[in-house]
Each structure stands twice: as structure tokens, then as C-alpha cells.
Design goal:
A: mainly beta, five-stranded antiparallel β-sheet, globular, B: mainly beta, 57% strand
Chain lengths: 111, 114
């Protein structure tokens, strides 16, 4: 089983739709969780951190489910500019707290 | 004005050539990383460094070497490039004082080995 798994998509959704992505992780001792956004041929950029209590930033909501070992990202009222690949990242436990990235989920918002 | 810069941005080279990719940062972060990204495989860690005297192998270090010349500079070398090293390479930094978890990426170097 991969350490971090994501559905690669693509998710094709119309403008204004709500879309959700999940990311599962295998290490139950993982401590920190993040969503990054990556535009085509560009570098990943942090979108938001994922806290145990959940995290909301405008149209974006991130949730953590430790029992089932997954994190989620919900995007409401999708915009054309939301089209990108969304990477989840998980920090493990231990001294280095290695970051493992998922392979990403591609979102295409359609007019 | 990028905080993490990479040079070159694009490079085409031939099998067997030695290649160096350079990364500089003005963020004042102590931790630096090199990743490669391939379609369907995501970001994979090649090497990381927590300070100038600290170098560690990542999950795919074979065929690569690194040098941390200063806190702000971290270079990646391919001693004898091979075609399966064709990929998009990213340098990243993080700040130990901020927990070291969030990573800040450079713009990437697209390397093609013929």
C-alpha cells in the first residue's frame, strides 16, 4: 500500500459546483497534513494546512479523519481559476518527520 | 521576486554528461530539499539537508549527489546523466523554527536527458 494515495482524476466539474477530494495515508502516527495546489508545469504551493478540528478558508474546507486515515478537501462554488492539480502531503512521526506527497488529483472546472 | 530560485530552468543534455542544478533561497530557512516529479509518480525526495553540515539521502538518491555550499545554496549533481533521469526537479525549503513542515518550492528545472 502506498504511504499516501489520491485519486488522480481528472475531476471535470462545471463552474459553481462543489467538488471533494480525498487522500488516504497509511501511517497512523502521521502528525501533520497539508493540501498543496500545483498549476501545470509550476511549483506546488501550500493551499492550506489540515487540522484535527478542520480548517476553512473561504470556499475551501479541509478535514482530517484520523480513525479512517484520510484527509479531504472540499471546494465550493468552483471557479475556472481553481483548475489545477491538488496534492496532499503528510508528515510522519519521528525525528525527521518525512513529508510524503500524494501523486495529486487533477481538477478541471468547465465553463 | 522569487524566494527560492533554481537554475537553469530548462536543460537538455546527453547521456553520460555531468549536470549540476542549483538552488538558492533568500527565505533564511535552514532546511533544503531536492525532489523530482514524474507523471503518475508524484514528488519523490532525492536528498535533504537540515543545515550546512547535514546531508541525508532521500528515497531515490542513486545516481545523484548534492552539495550544501551555504545555508542559502543547495546544488544537485547528476554525475553521469541517463535518460530515466528526465524529469521536473524541484528544490524546496522549510523553516525548523516554524516546525519545518510547510515546504516552499522553487520554480523547477525541466531536465531532458537524450
Amino acid at each position: 500500500r502506498k504511504e499516501v494515495e489520491q485519486d488522480p482524476g481528472p475531476f471535470n466539474v462545471p463552474e459553481g459546483a462543489t467538488v471533494a477530494f480525498n487522500c488516504t495515508y497509511s501511517n497512523s502516527a502521521s502528525q501533520s497534513f497539508f493540501w498543496y495546489r500545483q498549476d501545470c508545469r509550476k511549483e506546488p504551493k501550500l493551499l492550506m494546512s489540515v487540522y484535527s478540528s478542520g480548517n476553512e478558508d473561504g470556499r475551501f474546507t479541509a478535514q482530517l479523519n484520523r480513525a479512517s486515515q484520510y484527509i479531504s478537501l472540499l471546494i465550493r462554488d468552483s471557479k475556472l481559476s481553481d483548475s489545477a492539480t491538488y496534492l496532499c502531503a503528510v508528515n510522519g512521526a519521528g525525528g525527521y518527520q518525512k513529508v510524503t506527497f500524494g501523486t495529486g488529483t487533477k481538477l478541471q472546472v468547465i465553463p | 521576486d522569487a524566494d527560492v530560485t533554481q537554475t537553469p530552468r530548462n536543460r537538455i543534455t546527453k547521456t553520460g554528461k555531468r549536470i549540476m542544478l542549483e538552488c538558492s533561497q533568500t527565505k533564511g530557512h535552514d532546511r533544503m530539499y531536492w525532489y523530482r516529479q514524474d507523471p503518475g509518480l508524484g514528488l519523490r525526495l532525492i536528498y535533504y539537508s537540515f543545515d550546512v553540515k547535514d546531508i541525508n539521502k532521500g528515497e531515490i538518491s542513486d545516481g545523484y549527489s548534492v552539495s550544501r555550499q551555504a545555508q542559502a545554496k543547495f546544488s544537485l549533481s547528476l554525475e553521469s546523466a541517463i535518460p530515466n533521469q528526465t524529469a521536473l526537479y524541484f528544490c524546496a525549503t522549510s523553516d525548523r523554527l516554524a516546525g519545518g513542515r510547510e515546504q516552499f518550492f522553487g520554480p523547477g528545472t525541466r531536465l531532458t536527458v537524450l
